[in-house]
Automatic annotation (TrEMBL):
This is YqaJ viral recombinase family protein. It holds the Pfam family YqaJ. Gene3D superfamilies: 3.90.320.10. InterPro entries: PDDEXK-like_dom_sf (IPR011604), Restrct_endonuc-II-like (IPR011335), YqaJ_viral_recombinase (IPR019080). SUPFAM superfamilies: Restriction endonuclease-like. It comes from Corynebacterium pygosceleis. Residues 19-159 form the YqaJ viral recombinase domain.
Length: 303
């Protein structure tokens, strides 16, 4: 039975770090572009508390939630549905039946009639969103990391209707993506969370990986420098580091050469195309020209 928490810990606090929240689900499952199982494990174990990130895009995203939800409400009214928004803003739910510390924060809870509720989750994204989001009427329209996050929110809160609202930079509207609750997926997520939290209790972290999140976590675990200490590393590890550094240098040189050739082919043109796909764009920046490279569409949304 789900309950509403009126005194939930604030994001970034030690209690918040050591609880499984909806935002940690993609990292636990290994499907997050921003987090990793190793990094989430260290936070849950209380071994690493990353410095709070204060970027304008985060503040803008939080402020945009009200606009996005009111837009959603107006769209529903045009469709003949009168929904109301929870006047208190965010709502926090917990399900005491789950065997690990957790809670989920809903950006908004919408309701109509007697007891019909809907989760509203708001997202803002930069240009990369044009590649990772599909159109609302297409299958799997939202990125997988957000999909599993919303499934956990629905399962914990007991509200089995959800809309994800996304404001794409460069887009002329706020998109509404409906998400259907998948009880089997929620059961799998809960099972994974239970075993993951048990590994925290047992003190057995996941393996290292090559993600930036894991790199940042390892750096955070060892912030001090012992000037008198030396460590011998295995030959294979040293060779891998040297080979990777050399490959990075070669890749940067190759990229510079390719950019030079494309710029030369473009002349004064703004955009380079391959058929109907955008390859690159020339934009003025501080008195010079910058080449912005577009990724291949590969079946994602086309513009």
């Amino acid at each position: 039975m789900s309950i509403i928490l009126d005194d939930a810990p604030a994001p970034g606090t030690p209690e918040w770090q050591r609880s499984i929240t909806a935002s940690k689900i993609p990292g636990i499952l290994g499907v997050s572009p921003f987090d990793s199982p190793f990094a989430v494990w260290q936070k849950l174990a209380g071994r690493w508390e990353p410095e709070p990130v204060d970027k304008p895009i985060f503040r803008i995203g939080h402020l945009a939630e009200r606009v996005m939800c009111e837009f959603w409400q107006e769209q529903k009214a045009r469709e003949g549905e009168r929904w109301r928004l929870n006047p208190g803003g965010e709502m926090v739910y917990q399900n005491p039946d789950l065997p690990f510390p957790h809670f989920v924060t809903l950006d908004r809870r919408a309701w109509k009639g007697g007891r019909r509720f809907r989760v509203l989750e708001c997202k803002t994204t930069g240009w990369e969103g044009l590649r990772t989001w599909r159109r609302p009427d297409e299958p799997d329209s939202i990125p997988l990391n957000y999909h599993v996050q919303v499934q956990f929110q629905m399962g914990v809160s007991g509200i089995h209707e959800a809309d994800v609202l996304v404001w794409l930079r460069g887009g002329d509207t706020i998109e509404i993506h409906h998400v259907t609750f998948d009880p089997e997926l929620f059961t799998l997520i809960v099972a994974k969370c239970e075993s993951f939290f048990q590994s925290v209790i047992d003190g057995t972290p996941p393996d290292l990986d090559d993600s930036t999140a894991t790199y940042d976590a390892v750096r955070g675990l060892h912030p001090d420098v012992d000037e008198d200490a030396d460590v011998q590393v295995p030959d294979v590890l040293a060779r891998e580091l040297w080979d990777a550094a050399a490959a990075e240098k070669a890749a940067k040189q190759r990229l510079t050469g390719a950019k030079t050739a494309v710029l030369d082919a473009m002349g004064n043109a703004k955009t380079a195309l391959l058929g109907d796909q955008k390859v690159a764009t020339r934009t003025p920046s501080r008195g010079a020209i910058t080449l912005r490279i577009s990724k291949p569409t590969q079946g994602k949304r086309r513009w």
